[in-house]
Design goal:
seven-stranded parallel sheet, alpha/beta, 2 domains, Rossmann fold
């Protein structure tokens, strides 16, 4: 893994974890927090190997798979066995994995609780030595409270509990200041000294645009990226095979011709607030000849993993994602993060832009600010204690592509209508409201 020297979070947290202390670790994105808890776990496991030795909880499925991969790499010498227990995957296969007692279980809280409730007693969490809450600021929200309470009751009281987070929230602060329980060692807390949550190598801009022509500005930004990241381009324009005879089969739309296809942008993640927006932008960019793939909660887990694989391997240079892709994902050489929608909460901005400028690399973040976003941008700047610079694009050049963009917008919306995306959204929202009503009873 080419690790020569520990990062600040690793140097601070690994010694107390090896000494058996509970820990809260706070560090900027891309600073190596996973290794900070994985190495102590593997060290202790090598001295007394058994399963289930450690439980790592994460708020998103994609992050769970990534953490499991890192455990597999770091623990290869001791043949560590890991299991990923997340929603969207076959529960029976996961139950078989749990019965085989893997050393490390990486899970989302909801699916882990489902297995505890439906299990036949062939395994339990009574011997777990480490409980890790990664992206703890997100896990310590009311959304996960019932599942965490259930899991805490199933776990032994003499376990080590470790929380790691890139953003310091009131919930994390409350735990850091809490009184140590009798019989427990004092909690070790490492909080980053910098008051700025984002890394120094990240250039942060905002783009002030009217909401009704955002798409034209996005297309221009991707087709003509800033000079500072042009050298990071990794995908050539997609070759188009011209066929004789009919230009297309029924139901298929024509692909841009070779001479019309834009040059592909450097690796870019575009963040949206809603799954429908992510699907719409993905379709629109494809119509414009920019290879894109989507990551959101309405996709199957197999589709989500496939999208990440395509993006990681540079087959597709643009990933359009909701906040399921904002936490913890470590993808090399992401040149630019675009906030199509400003995040609902200011701390989510830190996680989104943290997908670029990782491990000392440079990166660029561009936030689209419309007439509705003034208050949000001010809250974000207060949170990160950094002023965003204004980016200006040549309006005349942007508007040259307006006709093509308008056509692509219409075709993208037709695609969503034809595939019934709106109906699926309505069904999902109805189920969500029913679950909330049931929980409130």
């Amino acid at each position: 893994m080419s690790i020569r020297h520990p990062t600040e979070i690793q140097a601070a947290c690994i010694p107390p974890l090896l000494q058996g202390e509970d820990c809260i670790g706070n560090a900027k994105t891309g600073s190596g927090k996973t290794i900070a808890f994985a190495l102590p776990i593997l060290h202790r496991l090598s001295m007394d190997p058994y399963g289930i030795f450690a439980l790592v909880l994460t708020p998103t499925r994609e992050l769970a798979f990534q953490i499991a991969e890192q455990f597999a790499v770091l623990g290869g010498a001791i043949n560590v066995r890991t299991a990923v227990v997340v929603g969207g995957m076959d529960m029976m296969a996961q139950a078989i994995e749990l019965r085989n007692r893997p050393h490390v279980v990486v899970a989302t809280p909801g699916r882990m609780v489902d297995h505890l409730r439906s299990g036949s007693g062939e395994w339990d969490l009574s011997r777990v030595k480490f409980l890790i809450l990664d992206e703890a600021d997100r896990l310590l929200t009311p959304t996960f409270a019932p599942e965490l309470e259930h899991l805490f009751e199933a776990l032994p009281t003499d376990r080590q509990t470790c929380l790691f987070t890139a953003t310091w929230t009131p919930a994390v602060e409350q735990l850091a200041l809490a009184q140590t329980k009798p019989g427990k060692q004092k909690l070790f807390v490492h909080r980053m000294t910098s008051s700025v949550e984002t890394v120094e190598t990240l250039k942060q801009y905002y783009l002030l645009v009217p909401s009704h022509i955002r798409e034209a500005y996005l297309f221009h930004l991707l087709s003509h990226p800033p000079e500072s990241i042009i050298h990071l381009r990794r995908s050539p324009p997609e070759p188009v095979k011209h066929r004789r005879g009919p230009a297309k089969k029924q139901g298929k739309r024509p692909t841009p011709r070779d001479e019309d296809a834009p040059e592909q942008p450097p690796p870019t993640i575009i963040f949206c607030n809603r799954p429908r927006t992510a699907a719409y932008l993905t379709n629109m960019l494809k119509e414009l000849g920019i290879r894109s793939t989507a990551l959101h909660s309405r996709l199957t887990q197999r589709e989500r993993l496939s999208s990440l694989s395509l993006f990681r391997s540079s087959v597709v240079p643009v990933l359009v994602s909701t906040d399921v892709g904002a936490r913890g994902l470590d993808i090399e050489d992401v040149a630019m993060v675009v906030n199509w929608d400003m995040p609902q909460e200011p701390e989510e901005y830190t996680h989104r832009v943290g997908r670029t400028a990782r491990a000392g690399r440079a990166g660029l973040a561009v936030s689209f600010v419309t007439e509705r976003d003034e208050e949000r941008i001010m809250k974000i700047e207060d949170r990160i204690r950094t002023k965003l610079e204004e980016m200006e694009l040549p309006e005349d050049k942007v508007l040259e592509g307006l006709n093509s963009v308008s056509t692509a917008k219409r075709l993208a919306n037709m695609e969503l209508h034809d595939t019934g995306f709106g109906k699926r959204e309505a069904v999902h929202m109805a189920k969500k409201k029913a679950r909330q009503a049931h929980d409130d009873m």
